Amino acid sequence: MPVEGVYRQYERRFAHNETHTINIRNSGRISIKKISLTLVASCPPKPFTHHHQLNCTAMKKMLFIAIALATLSFIPATNELSKKERKGALQLLKSTEKDLTSVLKGLDEAQLKYKPAPDRWSIEECVIHIATTEDMLWQMTDAAIKQPANPDKRAEIKVTDEQIVKMVEDRSEKRKTFTNLQPENSKYKTAAEALEAFKTSRANLENYIKSTSDDLRNHVVALQFGQVDSYQMILFMAGHTNRHTNQIKEVMADAGYPKAKAN
User: Fold this and answer.
1) Is residue 116 part of a domain?
2) pLDDT tens digits, one per residue of 9-30
3) Which of 6, 65, 143, 232 could form a disulfide with 228 if both were Cys (CB 3.0 to 4.6 A apart)?
4) Of 73, 107, 124, which marks where a domain is finished?
């Protein structure tokens, strides 16, 4: 029988009886229903001997394994954020933005610029600092993500996601910020300008969290208090916003804070 005839007979038998399926994580399903002409010619149908049939079976298994390995070699390992991680970060980002914008609503110039003491920030200065720091923190995070992953550094991370948020939000311990993050050194000069920039950067950050496939957990960043991963940096940003929203509320609670003007 010509080789082409062997191929057609074997192809029909293989298609009906021996379809193999490879499951590959989230990359779909690959159904293998045909083999090469060379292999078919080496594995003819009956009436060949039992020895030939055993060799054919072994060769089919080898082919299946080879195809599976070759296919897997083209699928990169992935450590994308889980649904829970995405949801948690988004909720924190959205809630802290909402709290800030709500507390600022309707404030007049006198209220924005009021300082409880010469060494304390006004509401406007708090907003400028929030926007300036958010820019800086994202620049650090983005730079880390663009570098090769450094999972070996994960062993140096000593804080959980929950701990890092609580730590940055806690105002029981006052900290002096870096000179370049001081309100007087910011490119933003008014609360309105800073708030607009903050809203834009926060919207971009939320869209990033929704869609990114970056391996945030294995890109580790060094901060003053220790190592954190890039996902924790995003939680840090949200916690930082909340820290200074609470500071704004402290200013508003001061006895000398200007009362709202009557309409």
Assistant:
1) yes
2) 434 443 444 433 333 333 333 3
3) 232
4) 73
Both tokens assigned to 80: 């994308």
Do 32 and 153 lie in a common domain? no
pTM comes to 0.71
Residue labelled with tokens 């001997």: 49
Same domain, 238 and 128: yes
Is residue 234 in some structural domain? yes
- Structural domains counted in the chain: 2
pLDDT tens column, 55-75: 656 666 665 665 555 544 443
